[in-house]
């Protein structure tokens, strides 16, 4: 989907909007580039000059802790000038359209927009309207995609497990509303993971589940059995319409990851979660803070992965 909008004629990355349709060559290039940026954090001056003089605008129309902050840190480590538009006090509240806001910021010599929006397709819309030298990164749109989260999750898996070709990965929970899960599934299948399972109650499965190339499980014990990686998803109450679940307590009983349930996975399994976590709903604190958890590593790797994406887009 939108492969041509994302790639230049020479096959290099122009925008990052979705992982759906992006070739393994590009995904691997991003992961390899991110690896080269890990050491920047260990320097006394945590900076490289790759984006010096470039202006990056963070446009977050939905709340965010991890994504917005790590994009800002990543841009600063690349020496870019970063502007965080405060949506609440912007002219959006006076009725300015999304494209008018973008046109005005483009007139301030923007080089890149990092966009989070509740509406699926918002970043694609912007990418179709910006001038050729401006790059757009989707930082999460509706239920559609969260490509840099998917990439930082792949980076985390690669750091801990080495490769994808021999892994069994389970993605557990609210797949119906999850843009993160879609990006993870596209990345895992493109990178050669032989068994991607989704584990969820029937009410939280997307309608197009049969087309995603995954194995569907309706029970936690069989769903995560012998898995190398268990990815827990947040229950996205803000996107739920109607009663899809009995209660948070009952959800935790059947679908929450506890130390007992985790015993079904491989002894060396890693546990991941994109955050924010609902402790006691989809994950028990003993697991979230336990020895299998790499949840905070995901956050740290997000900086290097976002540095990689921004430098590949605008650093050439
Ligand atoms: N994982 C993630 O997107 O978290 P934030 O909403 O805090 O950015």
Q: Structural class, from secondary structure content?
A: alpha/beta
Number of strands: 9
What portion of the residues fall into strands of 2 or more residues? 5-15%
CATH topology of the largest domain: Rossmann fold
Describe the structure.
The chain is of the alpha/beta class. It folds into 2 domains: 3-144 and 299-314, Rossmann fold; 147-293, Rossmann fold. Helix content is 36%, strand content 14%. It has 12 helices and 9 strands. The strands form 2 sheets. A 5-stranded parallel beta sheet has the order 7-6-5-8-9. The longest helix has 20 residues, at 295-314. It starts with a helix and ends with a helix. The mean pLDDT is 95. The site of phosphoric acid mono(formamide)ester has 9 residues, from α3.
Which properties best describe this structure?
36% helix, single chain, 2 domains, globular, Rossmann fold, alpha/beta, 14% strand, binds phosphoric acid mono(formamide)ester, 5-stranded parallel sheet, 316 residues
Task: Describe the structure in brief.
By secondary structure, the chain is of the alpha/beta class.
């Amino acid at each position: 989907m939108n492969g041509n909008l994302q790639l230049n004629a020479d096959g290099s990355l122009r925008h990052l909007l979705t992982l759906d349709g992006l070739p393994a060559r590009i995904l691997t290039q991003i992961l390899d580039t991110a690896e080269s940026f890990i050491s920047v954090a260990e320097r006394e001056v945590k900076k490289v000059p790759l984006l010096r003089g470039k202006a990056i605008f963070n446009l977050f129309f939905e709340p965010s802790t991890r994504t917005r902050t790590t994009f800002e840190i990543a841009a600063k480590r690349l020496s870019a000038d970063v502007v965080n538009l405060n949506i609440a006090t912007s002219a959006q509240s006076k009725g300015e359209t999304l494209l008018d806001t973008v046109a005005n910021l483009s007139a301030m010599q923007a080089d890149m927009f990092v966009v989070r929006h509740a509406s699926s397709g918002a970043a694609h819309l912007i990418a179709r309207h910006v001038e050729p030298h401006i790059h757009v990164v989707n930082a999460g749109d509706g239920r559609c995609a969260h490509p840099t989260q998917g990439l930082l999750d792949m980076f985390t898996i690669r750091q801990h497990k080495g490769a994808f070709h021999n892994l069994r990965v389970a993605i557990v929970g609210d797949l119906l509303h999850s843009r993160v899960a879609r990006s993870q599934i596209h990345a895992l299948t493109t990178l050669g993971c032989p068994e991607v399972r989704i584990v969820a109650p029937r009410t939280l499965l997307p309608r197009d589940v049969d087309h995603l190339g995954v194995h569907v499980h309706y029970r936690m014990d069989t769903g995560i059995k012998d898995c190398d990686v268990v990815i827990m998803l947040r229950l996205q109450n803000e996107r739920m319409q109607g009663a899809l679940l009995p209660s948070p307590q009952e959800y935790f009983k059947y679908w929450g990851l506890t130390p007992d349930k985790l015993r079904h996975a491989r002894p060396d399994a890693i546990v991941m979660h994109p955050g924010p976590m609902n402790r006691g709903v989809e994950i028990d604190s003993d697991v979230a803070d336990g020895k299998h958890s790499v949840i905070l590593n995901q956050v740290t790797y997000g900086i290097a992965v976002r540095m990689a994406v921004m430098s590949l887009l605008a650093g050439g």
